[in-house]
Amino acid sequence: MSSISKKEPSLAFGGQALIEGIMIRSRKHVVCCVRNPKNEIVSDIKQITPISEKYRVLGWPFLRGTVNMIENLCLGFKGIMFSADTAFEIEGEAGKEPEKIEFGGAEIAILVAALVGITAVFFLVPFLLSTWLGLTGLVFNLVEAVTRLSMFVAYLSAISLWGQYKRVLMYHGAEHKAIHAHEAGVPMDVEHVKRFSRLHPRCGTSFLFIVVIISIVLFTVMPNLGFTIDLAYRVLLIPVIAGISYELLRLSGKYKNSPITRVLVSPGLAFQHLTTKEPTDDMLEVSIKAVTEVNRLVCSTLQDKM
Q: How far is CA 288 from CA 15, 85, 112, 189, 201, in A?
């Protein structure tokens, strides 16, 4: 059952916690499993048409990171809408037949809005604060770096303390446990899956931490070319930072047993103590169903090609 993840250990399956559910995706499919008020697990299965299949160049290293971020933002938004419909029994996506997903103008608009927010908060605010304080040279870089890292930690801490968000964090933990179990090749049942860690090195939290660290390093070594240019390249280099971070995340999956890798991913794993909580058995049932369904679809696709 785990042969697929062993052949492609570096991001074979990805996922996201939803409202009372889990979204799991492979390259070609996305499955959302959500528990409704009747205690039933409702599944929504869609086929994905990745942008990189239409434009091969977008699948190249250092470009695919930004593309993957776009796709995950779009899929995550759709998954949250489906989970809200299902968890609260609102007619909408939950009642529709499975459909094929293509990324178009609406999804790009969602991405632009998200990136504007991310840019303003994590990239521009530390720079503008350091500029406002009148700092220069090494002190400027140090204050900007500390501010950016502090904002990241504060953001994660705020999420972990938000009481209404606790169940989502528990489903996040359930997602990680199910993916761990799938990659380990153990039987996909609650008793086996619950033994695994709720922390996973390929989590989006780890990706965000890598983004923050790469941005700090890159902006520190960049020369001071004046306020306007310095402000501009902090925005223009975001795709570069995302691309580098994605490749590092892939390497952490490929060489996950390396002692060096374990040391490097440990900060990202530590932050996941804030973004995940231990799930209940019924949450694990949802994550197991989502992972099992995606794995079935991947196996079926491979068999069709043989």
A: 12, 21, 33, 7, 19
Q: Structure pTM?
A: 0.84
**The sheet that has 41-48: what strands, in order across it?**
14-18, 21-25, 29-35, 41-48, 100-101
With beta carbons less than 8 A apart as the criterion, state whether 271 and 209 touch.
Answer: yes
For 182-196, give the secondary structure using H, E and C. HHHCCCCCHHHHCCC
Residue whose C-alpha is closest to residue 264's, from 214, 215, 196: 214
> Looking at per-residue confidence, does 276 or 99 come out higher?
276
Express each pLDDT in 227-268 by its tens digit.
999 999 888 888 899 899 999 988 887 888 888 888 888 999
- What is the DSSP annotation of 180-245? HHHHHT---SHHHHTTS-S--TTSHHHHHHHHHHHHHHHHHHS----HHHHHHHHHHTHHHHHHHH
- Residue 257 has which token pair? 């047993």
pLDDT of 5 higher than 50: no
Collect all residues with Cβ–Cβ distance below 8 Å to 2 and sequence separation of at least 6.
182, 183, 184, 185
Collapse the DSSP code of 55 into the 3-class scheme (helix H, G, I; strand E, B; otherwise coil) and give the result. coil
**Angle formed by the axes of helices 204-221 and 259-275, nearest 10°:** 110
Determine the Cα–Cα distance for residues 101 and 99; give it in Å rounded to an integer. Answer: 6
